[in-house]
Design a protein that fits this description.
Distance between the termini: 88 Å
Number of helices: 5
Order of helices and strands: EEHHHEEEEEHEEEEEEEEEH
Number of strands: 16
CATH architecture of the largest domain: Sandwich
CATH topology of the largest domain: Immunoglobulin-like
Strand content: 25-35%
Length: 256
């Protein structure tokens, strides 16, 4: 019963809230149309008889309420329109775990689900709230991120006095641009395929591929057989130490 009686001070109703209501309101930090209408009704019910509000004041408050409702409806319509426009698009969503950690999910929107005022995006068979949307990604960006690559620059060394196989790591890509084989060479000249071996993400080059090269530093060309035929020329270099071979060309030319 005490909840129905609100104190009046200087002609104004003093609103009181339960502890849990106060916490909830503080977390949202907003005044919705339902709360606005409840406030207006309470104000009319408990107005000071000696200092009643005028009709003009009520009309102004009702106009404000109507404007607030229209703005909220417009916002909801805009969100729904934006959600439907994302079908078939690649998006990045923000997900918070129960421990408070934030992770990001990337995928293509399959469909949009609407239940009442709740709008959800379906990504990889799982529903996410529309407000979890973080970034909309272009198809070109997604393809580029999935291309094969060599993440780290690698400097190799071959010594003819102690010849060994050389190896380096590659990323074979993801999605629709995955490679399953590579070709390696210097400049436009590729090593014989029998000298290059791919095992997982490791490329191994037979030591005989460098046996006849003169001293110098050479940049390797790595070509992947993905649909885009991705070629990387600036990530792997080999320093050759071979005193038995007479240089017939400047080493700097061999790197180009």
């Amino acid at each position: 019963m005490s909840d129905l009686v609100q104190p009046v001070k200087d002609g104004a109703v003093q609103q009181t809230k339960k502890k849990e209501e106060t916490s909830s309101s503080a977390s949202k930090n907003e005044l919705g149309k339902d709360a606005f209408l409840e406030l207006l009704v309470t104000q009319m019910k408990y107005q000071d008889p000696l200092n009643p509000n005028t009709d003009t004041e009520y009309i102004a408050q009702l106009a404000t309420f109507s404007q607030l409702e229209q703005l909220q409806n417009l916002s909801s319509t805009t969100n729904n329109t934006q959600a439907f426009s994302l079908v078939g698009k690649n998006v990045m969503l923000k997900a918070d775990s129960t421990t408070g950690n934030t992770s990001y999910i990337t995928g293509k929107v399959d469909f949009v689900s609407m239940s009442g005022k709740n709008t959800q995006l379906s990504v990889d068979g799982k529903l996410y709230n529309f407000d979890q949307l973080d970034t909309v990604l272009s198809d070109e960006y997604v393809i580029e991120q999935g291309l094969p690559k060599i993440s780290d620059a690698t400097a190799l060394s071959y010594d003819a006095d102690n010849p060994k196989e050389l190896n380096f790591q590659v990323n074979l890509g993801s999605g629709d641009t995955v490679a399953d084989n590579v070709a390696v060479g210097i400049g436009e000249t590729a090593f014989d395929s029998s000298l290059v071996k791919l095992s997982g993400n490791k490329v191994t080059i037979n030591k005989s591929a460098f046996a006849n090269l003169p001293n110098g530093i050479y940049k390797l060309t790595v070509a992947f057989n993905d649909p885009k035929y991705t070629t990387v020329k600036d990530k792997v270099s080999v320093q050759i130490k071979n005193s038995e071979v007479t240089a017939t060309t400047d080493a700097t030319q061999a790197t180009q």
